[in-house]
Write a structure and sequence with these properties.
By secondary structure, the protein is mostly beta strands. The protein contains five helices and 55 strands. Helix content is 3%, strand content 47%. Strands 40, 45, 46, 47, 49, 50, 51, 53 and 54 form a nine-stranded antiparallel beta sheet that branches. It has a five-stranded antiparallel beta sheet with strand order 6-5-8-10-12. The chain has a five-stranded mixed beta sheet with strand order 9-16-13-19-20.
C-alpha cells in the first residue's frame, strides 16, 4: 500500500521568525496564498514497506540562510493537530526537507520499530514549481536466523544464537526469526555465537559452541544465517554448518513524491451548500503538472468532460497546469430540484488527482416520492413538491398523464424553500410528467413518475401449492385458501385432476404452473378446473356445490386480465346432458368478473345455477347475474400447443359506473361443458402468471 502526500509550503519573512520557538513549530502559520515572491515545492512521501501497510512519519522543512537552518514547517502524520495542508507555498530561498519514520531502537525483533530517515536540499524560485523526490532509507540492518530441522529436533536441551555489533547492540535468537540492528558509528562487523546441547539417539549429550562474523555490513542489505547440524560429520565443530547469505536485499521505504492538484471555487467556498437559481459557477484547478482529464458525476450519471460535449459545461485550460470548469443553466436544468451533491474530479499527467463533493440546492421540481400516493377506484391522489427560492407571488405544479393535457395545481409553502401541491385524478400504473411554474413561468426541466400497480390476485403466479390429505391445493395453506379446484370431488375417485407442473411459460421467473386434466371418474365426467373461490362439498347424490369468487380490494380499476396458457381441445367422448355433443371439439374456457358478491353453483341444478359471464347482461332469477359489474370472457374450441399470452378487456355490465366491486370471480377449465358432465378425456390445459392489467 502506498500513501501519496503532497507537501507544498509557504511562509512570509515574519512568519519564518515567529514560527520557531523552543523547538516547536506552528505548522498552520504564515500566509498560505500565492504571491510573486513565492514558489511551490511539491514533496511526495510514500510510506510503503515489504510487509504492506502505511507508516506514520514526521516531515520537517528547514530554511537555510546565513549559515543557519531554521525549522519553518513540521508535520506529524500521527497527530491530528499537525496534519499537512493540501498546498503550502515558500518564500524563495534554499531549504532542506527531512523525513523520519519510526524510533531508533538499537536492536529489535519488532518490525514496527524499524527506523527510516532521509533528507534532501532544494531551492525555491519565485513563481516556479520545484519537485523534491525524498527517499527515506531504512537505517536498520536486517539479520534473519534460520534453524534447520536438525537443530530444532536434535538440540533437545536448548540452543541459542547471539548476534551483536557490540554489547549495547545485540539480539538473542532461540527460534527462526528476523531481527533489526542499528550499527554504531564506525562499526561494520556483526558477530554471531551459537551455543547448544545436541542429544544423540543413545542419550549422549554433546555441547556445541561456535562463533563467526559478518564483515563489511552495508545499509540497504539484508543478511541470512542458516544453521544446520550433521551428527555424521567428523569432529564436533565440523558438525555444525553455518551459511551466510548476503544477497538478500531489503526494500527501502520510498517517501516518493506525486503531488495532487488543488480544486477551488472562484470566489466562493466549495464546502458551503449553494442555492442555485440560475447563472454560472466557476471552478479552478491548479497543479505542477498539466491537466489531462476531468469528470463530473451528477444525477446518477458520470460525464467525461474531455471526451464529450456536455450542455451547460465549459472546460478551458486542458493540457495546462491551470484548468477552469464552468457550470451554467443547461447543466443544472437536467437535474431535479432539491439537494444534490455533484462530484468533480480533475487529473494531471503525473497521476495526481483532486476530487471534490460540491453541495447544491437546486430550484425546480423535486424527485417523486410515492409515500403520499393513494390509489382509488375512481382516481387517486398524490403529492408533488418543488424547491423554490425567495417569495414568489404564485407557485404551481403542472402535471399530465402521458402526452395528455397539462393540469395546474396550486402549490403552498410547506417548509424552508419547499412548496407542495396535492394532485388528484391519478390512476394505477400510469406515467405522469410534472413541472414547476413560478409567477407564470416554467422553471427547470420536467420530471416523470409512474404510479404503483393496482392490487393483484393472491398467488396469481400459481407458485404456492400445498396438500390437504389427498387433495392438491393451489395456495400456501388449505385453510382459507383463495383458490380452489375440482380436486375435492375427484381425489377419492381418480386422484387430483388439477396439479402444479414445472412446465412454465417462456421468460417466467417462477418455477410452477397449473396443469388441468379431464377424466372419467367412475360414474361421471370430471373436468379439470381451477378457480378463485371455495368448495362447498358433495351431497349424498354425488352432486357438488362450489362458490365462485372471493373478496377483493379494488384500489384501482383494472382494464383487462392477462394470462399465459396452452391447451388441447379433445373430441367430446362423454355426454350426459347433451349440452356438449359427442364428436364435437371440447371447449377451453377462462373468464373473470368484478362483482359485488360470490356466486353459488350446484351441479344438481346445472341449468339454474351454471354461471356464464358471456351472457352476463341477462339478469334472471337464481343465476344472480346482477352481481356482475364487469366481465372478461375467453373461450376456444381450437387447441393451442405452445404457450400463448392472452389479454381480455373487461366489459361493463352494471348500471352505475361509479359503483366499486367487492369480489373477484375467476375460473379456468379445459372442458367448458364440465358443469353438465359433458367433455373429452383428452382435454387439458396449462395456465401461468395471471395478472390484472391497470
Amino acid at each position: 500500500m502506498r500513501r501519496i502526500l503532497n507537501i507544498i509550503s509557504c511562509v512570509c519573512a515574519l512568519a519564518l521568525v515567529s514560527c520557531v520557538s523552543d523547538g516547536k513549530v506552528n505548522n498552520t502559520s504564515g500566509d498560505n496564498t500565492p504571491s510573486e515572491d513565492k514558489g511551490v515545492v511539491t514533496i511526495s512521501v510514500g510510506t510503503r514497506t515489504e510487509s504492506g501497510g502505511e507508516r506514520d512519519y514526521i516531515l520537517s522543512i528547514f530554511k537555510n540562510e546565513g549559515g543557519k537552518a531554521t525549522l519553518v514547517r513540521k508535520y506529524d502524520s500521527s497527530r491530528e493537530d499537525m496534519q499537512k495542508p493540501e498546498y503550502i507555498w515558500l518564500i524563495a530561498g534554499n531549504y532542506t526537507a527531512t523525513v523520519v519514520s519510526g524510533t531508533a531502537v538499537n536492536a529489535t525483533f519488532n518490525e514496527a520499530e524499524r527506523y527510516f530517515y532521509g533528507s534532501k536540499d532544494f531551492d525555491i524560485t519565485a513563481g516556479a514549481t520545484t519537485t523534491v523526490d525524498l527517499v527515506a532509507v531504512m537505517q536498520n540492518i536486517p539479520v534473519e536466523v534460520l534453524f534447520d530441522q536438525t537443530i530444532t529436533e536434535g538440540f533437545l536441551d536448548g540452543y541459542n544464537v547471539e548476534v551483536k555489533a557490540n554489547e549495547e547492540v545485540k539480539l538473542s535468537y532461540t527460534e527462526s526469526k528476523k531481527g533489526y540492528f542499528i550499527m554504531p558509528e564506525g562499526v561494520t562487523t556483526l558477530s554471531w555465537h551459537f551455543v547448544g546441547t545436541f542429544v544423540y539417539e543413545d542419550g549422549e549429550r554433546v555441547e556445541v559452541d561456535k562463533v563467526g562474523t559478518i564483515e563489511n555490513i552495508e545499509l540497504k542489505k539484508g543478511y541470512k544465517l542458516s544453521f544446520k547440524f550433521s551428527k555424521d560429520a567428523s569432529g564436533l565443530l565440523g558438525g555444525l554448518t553455518v551459511r551466510v547469505d548476503e544477497s538478500v536485499e531489503e526494500r527501502d521505504d520510498h517517501f516518493s513524491f506525486s503531488p495532487d492538484p488543488e480544486l477551488k471555487g472562484v470566489g466562493f467556498d466549495l464546502a458551503a451548500p449553494y442555492n442555485y437559481a440560475g447563472g454560472e459557477r466557476k471552478y479552478v484547478a491548479t497543479s505542477p503538472a498539466d491537466f489531462c482529464a476531468a469528470t463530473i458525476v451528477a444525477g446518477g450519471r458520470e460525464y467525461n468532460l474531455v471526451e464529450e460535449v456536455v450542455a451547460g459545461v465549459t472546460l478551458t485550460g486542458l493540457n495546462t497546469p491551470q484548468l477552469y470548469i464552468t457550470l451554467s443553466d443547461d447543466f443544472f436544468n437536467a437535474l431535479s430540484g432539491g439537494a444534490h451533491t455533484i462530484e468533480m474530479c480533475v487529473t494531471d499527467t503525473s497521476g495526481g488527482e483532486a476530487r471534490k463533493d460540491l453541495p447544491y440546492n437546486l430550484q425546480g421540481v423535486n424527485s417523486y416520492d410515492n409515500t403520499n400516493e393513494v390509489l382509488a377506484w375512481a382516481g387517486g391522489t398524490t403529492q408533488l413538491s418543488a424547491t423554490v427560492f425567495g417569495s414568489p407571488a404564485s407557485v404551481a405544479l403542472v402535471c399530465r398523464e402521458g402526452e395528455g393535457e397539462w393540469k395546474s395545481f396550486a402549490a403552498a409553502s410547506s417548509g424552508v424553500n419547499t412548496y407542495t401541491a396535492q394532485i388528484s385524478g391519478i390512476n394505477a400504473n400510469r406515467r405522469y410528467e410534472y413541472n414547476l411554474v413560478i409567477d407564470g413561468k416554467t422553471v427547470g426541466t420536467s420530471l416523470a413518475f409512474t404510479t404503483r400497480d393496482g392490487n393483484q390476485i393472491p398467488n396469481s403466479g400459481l407458485e404456492d401449492w400445498c396438500t390437504s390429505g389427498k387433495v392438491a391445493v393451489p395456495f400456501r395453506t388449505a385453510d382459507n385458501a383463495y383458490w380452489c379446484t375440482g380436486n375435492w370431488g375427484s381425489a377419492d375417485y381418480v386422484g387430483n385432476i388439477t396439479e402444479s407442473n414445472s412446465d412454465v411459460r417462456p421468460g417466467s421467473t417462477g418455477k410452477k404452473s397449473a396443469y388441468l386434466d379431464s377424466m372419467w371418474a367412475l360414474v361421471k365426467f370430471a373436468a379439470g378446473n381451477i378457480y378463485v373461490g371455495s368448495w362447498g362439498g358433495i351431497d349424498s347424490s354425488v352432486q357438488a356445490t362450489v362458490y365462485f369468487g372471493q373478496p377483493f380490494e379494488y384500489n384501482a380499476k383494472p382494464k383487462a386480465i392477462r394470462f399465459w396458457a396452452k391447451w388441447n381441445c379433445g373430441i367430446i367422448n362423454r355426454e350426459k346432458s347433451g349440452v356438449g355433443k359427442k364428436g364435437d371439439p371440447d371447449l377451453c374456457k377462462i373468464f373473470c368478473c368484478m362483482a359485488t358478491d360470490r356466486h353459488k353453483v350446484y351441479s344438481g341444478d346445472a341449468d339454474g345455477t351454471t354461471f356464464s359471464p358471456s351472457d352476463a347482461n341477462i339478469k334472471s332469477g337464481d343465476k344472480r347475474y346482477d352481481i356482475v359489474l364487469y366481465s372478461a370472457y375467453f373461450e376456444s374450441t381450437e387447441s393451442q400447443a405452445e404457450w400463448r399470452q392472452i389479454e381480455i378487456p373487461f366489459t361493463f355490465y352494471g348500471e352505475d359506473p361509479n359503483q366499486v366491486p367487492t369480489h373477484l370471480i375467476l375460473t379456468c377449465t379445459c372442458s367448458g361443458y364440465g358443469d353438465y358432465f359433458d367433455g373429452s378425456e383428452d382435454s387439458w390445459m396449462y395456465i401461468d402468471d395471471i395478472e390484472l392489467v391497470y
